């Protein structure tokens, strides 16, 4: 109460406080009305949502994480990626317990996020009318497919609905792969699994399979923040999906995750080799390394350039900043 009393004791400050408050409320109301009048967030809105990303962007505003980083990400373990994110303060980026169409194949890409909701007639009418105005074709579950670019992953919150919650079958699955050369992640279900399995290169992480078709669901929005189980996902997040689960990586942290995880993997490779050789004890490798072990590791890197997943110059820059 004290700041408010002090403000009101000065008429001019009180007037400015009142005008500022009204302006903030007006902006919020306009923003909510704008969001309700569109199917997908605008490029400007997506940029504002992902403002910590400073690199190139896709036409819809999503961060365009480089293909070479995504390729390197595919070789990183879930635990390594998760650990780097936790150290950076991102504690809610993992979801496990999936049914995987092709368990032996990992999936990486950029998230195109989609929110689905239980059907409510007035909102469903409004979103379909807006889709028609925007010349969107077909059912609302196909609208995100038309927006996919190569390297994208269709990531949808289907709020865990299995029966009558099947977001795609094999027809839409073929369309998704044609557009993205990638797969899907649905906190929901799919149908036509035998047909989906026949799509070479396509993969899916889902919560269930069912022969039913989609009913009593509606589209909430495209390229909006969504919840996937215990994880929060933003448009353009990098996705690392493997047998053990999925890590959703904020775009601005992908490079850090990759280089840190690759360095940890190199340390482990060196340490395992030296333990097998009997050169060091487990206690020596598991604790803070001595200067002799550090020197040995640097020499090992020089002797094994083929084992480096990054360039040596990139590794040198990284190691100058790292405190082992």
TrEMBL record:
Cofactor: Mg(2+); a divalent metal cation
Keywords carried by this UniProt record: Magnesium, Metal-binding
Pfam families linked to this entry: RraA-like (PF03737)
Binding site residues for Mg(2+): 192
Residues bound to substrate: 169-172, 191
Top-level taxon of the source organism: Bacteria
Record's keyword annotation contains Ribonucleoprotein: no
GO molecular-function term, one example from the UniProt record: metal ion binding
The keyword Plastid appears for this protein: no
InterPro entries: RraA/RraA-like, RraA/RraA-like_sf
Gene3D superfamilies found in the cross-reference section: Ribonuclease E inhibitor RraA/RraA-like
Identification of the protein by name: Putative 4-hydroxy-4-methyl-2-oxoglutarate aldolase
Species whose genome carries this gene: Dawidia cretensis
């Amino acid at each position: 109460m004290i700041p408010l009393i002090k403000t009101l004791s000065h008429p001019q400050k009180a007037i400015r406080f009142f005008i500022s408050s009204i302006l903030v409320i007006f902006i919020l109301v306009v923003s909510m009305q704008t969001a309700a009048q569109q199917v997908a967030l605008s490029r400007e809105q997506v940029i504002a949502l992902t403002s910590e990303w400073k690199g190139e962007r896709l036409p819809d505003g999503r961060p365009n994480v480089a293909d070479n980083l995504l390729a390197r990400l595919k070789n990183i373990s879930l635990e390594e990626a998760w650990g780097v994110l936790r150290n950076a303060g991102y504690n809610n980026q993992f979801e496990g317990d999936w049914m995987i169409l092709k368990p032996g194949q990992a999936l990486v890409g950029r998230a195109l996020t989609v929110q689905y909701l239980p059907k409510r007639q007035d909102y469903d009418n409004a979103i379909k009318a807006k889709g028609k105005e925007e010349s969107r074709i077909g059912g609302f579950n196909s609208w995100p497919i038309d927006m996919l670019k190569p390297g994208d992953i269709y990531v949808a919150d289907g709020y865990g609905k299995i029966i009558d919650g099947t977001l795609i079958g094999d027809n839409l699955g073929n369309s998704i792969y044609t557009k993205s050369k990638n797969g899907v992640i649905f906190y929901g279900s799919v149908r036509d699994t035998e047909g989906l399995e026949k799509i070479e290169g396509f993969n899916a992480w889902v919560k269930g399979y069912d022969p039913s078709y989609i009913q009593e669901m509606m589209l909430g929005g495209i390229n909006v923040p969504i919840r996937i189980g215990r994880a929060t996902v933003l448009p353009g997040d990098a996705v690392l999906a493997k047998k053990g689960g999925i890590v959703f990586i904020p775009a601005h942290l992908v490079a850090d995750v990759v280089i840190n995880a690759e360095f940890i993997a190199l340390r482990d490779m060196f340490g395992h080799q030296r333990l097998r050789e009997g050169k060091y004890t487990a206690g020596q490798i598991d604790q803070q390394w001595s200067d002799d072990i550090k020197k040995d590791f640097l020499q090992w890197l020089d002797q094994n350039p083929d084992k480096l997943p990054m360039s040596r110059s990139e590794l040198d820059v990284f190691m100058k900043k790292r405190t082992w």
